[in-house]
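User: Thanks for the earlier help. One more: Peptidase S41. Can you show the sequence and predicted structure together?

Assistant: Of course, both are below.
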Amino acid sequence: MSKLLKASALIAVGFFCALLVLRDGAHAERSDPVPAGATMDLPVQELRLFSEVLGIIRQNYVEPVSDGDLLKSAIRGMLAGLDPHSAYLEQEEFQELKEGTSGEFGGLGIEVGMEDGFVKVVSPIDDTPAQKAGILAGDLIIRLDDTAVKGLSLNEAVKLMRGAPGTDITLTIVREGQERPLQIKLTRAVIKVNSVRSRSLDPGYGYLRVSQFQVNTGRKLRDAVTELKEKNGGALKGLVLDLRNNPGGVLTAAVSVSDAFISDGLIVYTEGRGPEAAQKFSATSGDILEGVPIVVLVNAGSASASEIVAGALQDNGRAIIMGEKTFGKGSVQTILPISESAALKLTTARYFTPKGRSIQAEGIEPDVPLERVQLTALEQPFQPLGERDLARHLDNPNGKAKPATSAAPKAAADQPATDTKEVSLAKADFGVHEALNLLKALNIVQSRAK
């Protein structure tokens, strides 16, 4: 072996030993046990291959590359080869991750992942430049301004999308059903995510939108429910919980939201290789809605923590899930700091619903499937004839029938077919409209059963 290769071998062995030391340090910080003799399991043959490749690159690559850059690239490669969600985070990326879970960061407002070398939109975040410009879950971003995405890492693509508020960027996207790529110009902004929004739909019926799961989402949701109750005379008849295009977030926030509506029983459990990865989360006593019906809206952009909530409420029989099959991200990522300025985001477990279902790559099947549609109201809806419109019809013995003036149907302006507010809701958001109708039907059934 040449001197260069010998030197490379020393670097490689030192590199892997350093990894083991950092791993031990991270586990010590988490108080997790480290298997005895872990340092004795180094794959010698693969280390030789690594050192040989390292030496060839150092000697023959067209431009000089520092050992530090090569080793960091090796770390990134190791993690990228595991699954789409594991990654090596340097200081800037680590900080961005913390900002995302706290609810304020700069950029376009898109939750993204990688698919076939392109950036895939998991979901746009509410009230952000991306959502306002019409970016949809499932869009593939193939170009950022003049830079092709193919060949970039996810972190590199995210850096290009981030920038000073007020600056512009043009995304070229491929969308299912569109023959040609679309170009959408966006203006960057400071993204402040309000994870919970609420409003009343009809007297007694509330609407809660959870856009992502942050550290304080559980508390905000409980406050929002209390406010909805106060606005509706102290109680609700039903609640629509909207988790559509919610990319997930903090696991404990998903547990807190589920716990708000479940008085007892299992919420979610996780399983991994180590004993520290096995956890169970159960509900505490008390349901803030006291059994009031809930309809949960989901779609293909509902991922991770959203699926935990939907699965928990579904398996416990606490809510009806309506919409589309969810994204199917059923894995848990743990942040393992390895220095003051870097960390590993490592997939350490799978999570399971209370009935033992793994959602990984499968998603949550809705109880009531609902296609994405947009309604258009007829300007003059046809009014069908009724018995009372017929000449010489029999009178109602209760005196409620009105005398017919003509056999012709009434004008649309005189007899509106549907309540204007109901039509507006159906046109604005068909999913919420259908969820509200289902809640009303459940209340009718419950009241008649009593």
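User: Great, one quick takeaway?

Assistant: The chain has three domains: 3-81, 104-192, 196-369.
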